[in-house]
């Protein structure tokens, strides 16, 4: 199991600095006994009531990109306080990450009320995704029916032999990405319209497109 250690204190006072170092040391020792391979250690000094934290953003990006399967914290308050904590736990769980708390001696245990709130949040978010996919599907169907849109024209290696690339409508991927959908949600949307694509395929094609854009516009990529 690969894990990321996340340690946080709220101020820059000397005693808090010591607390931060102690959190990391305790979590590293605990990781060895789990066992868990620590791939990254993230520390920061920031209020737990706020979500605009550089270290937290890095943590969420890492679990979304599957760089680690677990997050190790001293206790649940290190992730955040109040509503901020629930928001962070929800995002980590949504990304498939397991949260381990040293205080709990294993996976994080939430109070019954907090678990209920998280369950409701997940259901609301699931409904919003379904609505979004349905609206996009209707829009794509209208494009086919009224404007003659043919995503097959996006294939660049038809008739060239070798293994054919999957039929993936790049312009639709870009449009969905602009709407802040995840690669998993984009794949699910395209699958609903009949495209045989996975999250990995969508992610790969998007990265290929970004790489070509950087090569074609080197100045813009550094602005």
Automatic annotation (TrEMBL):
Pfam families (alphabetical): Resolvase
SUPFAM superfamilies, per database record: Resolvase-like (SSF53041)
GO molecular function list: DNA binding; DNA strand exchange activity
Alphabetized InterPro entries for the sequence: Resolv_N, Resolvase-like_N_sf, SSR_resolvase
Source superkingdom: Bacteria
Domain Resolvase/invertase-type recombinase catalytic: 2-147
Family membership: Belongs to the site-specific recombinase resolvase family.
PANTHER family assigned to the protein according to its UniProt record, in alphabetical order: DNA-INVERTASE FROM LAMBDOID PROPHAGE, RESOLVASE HOMOLOG YNEB
Name this polypeptide is given: DNA invertase Pin-like site-specific DNA recombinase
High-level lineage: Bacteria, Bacillati, Bacillota, Bacilli, Bacillales
